[in-house]
Structure formats: C-alpha cells, structure tokens
Amino acid sequence: MVASKIRGVLVSVHGVGVLIRGPSGAGKSLIALNLMRRGHKLVSDDLVEVVAEEGGIPIGRSIEEHVRIEVCGLGIFRASTLIPEGTVFSSPIHLVVDLDAYDPVRDAGRIVPETGLCRLLQSDVIQVRLPLPERSDPALLIELLARQFKETGTVTP
User: Fold this and answer.
1) Whole-number mean pLDDT of the chain?
2) Which residue from 121, 79, 113 is spatially nearest to 97, judged by alpha carbons?
C-alpha cells in the first residue's frame, strides 16, 4: 500500500471527504472546528496520511490515534474533548479545497468555481480554489461545495 503525507485538514462533510489546504494561518483548523460544530467529522488536522486503497481512491487518516486540533490562541486540543462525536478515523478524499485570498479583479463577478484536478497518489481528485472575501463563512462555502458534489458529482452549478 502506497502512503503519502499531505499538509492540510481533512473533514468529512455530508459524507464527502474534503481536504482543505492553504497557507499557515489561513484558518484551516477554525474552518474544521466550525464544520465539526455543524455535525461534520474531522479526520485529521495539519497533517493527513493518504493511502491508495484498492481501486485507487485516496483515503485520508490521521497520523495520530487521537486526532488533535489547534485552536488559534488557545492551544492544541484532543478534538473529541471539544466535540465528542466530531471525529472519524478515515475518509475517502473526494475534493481538495485550496483557500486563497479574495482578489477583486480576479474574483468579482465569478459565476462558477475555479476548478481543476489534483493528483493524489494514483488518482485525480477535483480541486477547487476558494477565494475568501472578508467576513465570509468558509465553513458554509465548503458545506455547499460538498453538498453539490454529493448530489451531482461535480462542484459547478
């Protein structure tokens, strides 16, 4: 079994595995905590171990037995102590969401998500650039992307 480690946060949202990537301090862990609070499941924070199962689907899991999550300004917590039902051992990775700064020239008037494919081990996974304007709710946006993917197999409307 081939394995790789990827920087990011993996959350299962509506049963869709979403790998959230972005620069340090972008808010990945806070997004995950907000998603957990809404009933979704954290798989791993900061570092995700990805393995290719039979059939080539990438599966992500925590490198730790008990998933921990960093709460900016408060410290690192065992995720299950914050939200007891908020973790799961592993999840297939269906989407990669790259957090990015909102650029009014590039992003104003956009009517479809900016997408591509990301290679994880031997599989191509849909990759979405998520520009974040001030005062946006990235957890809500990721929920919408996951729901759209679950219902249609794509993230475009």
Assistant:
1) 92
2) 113
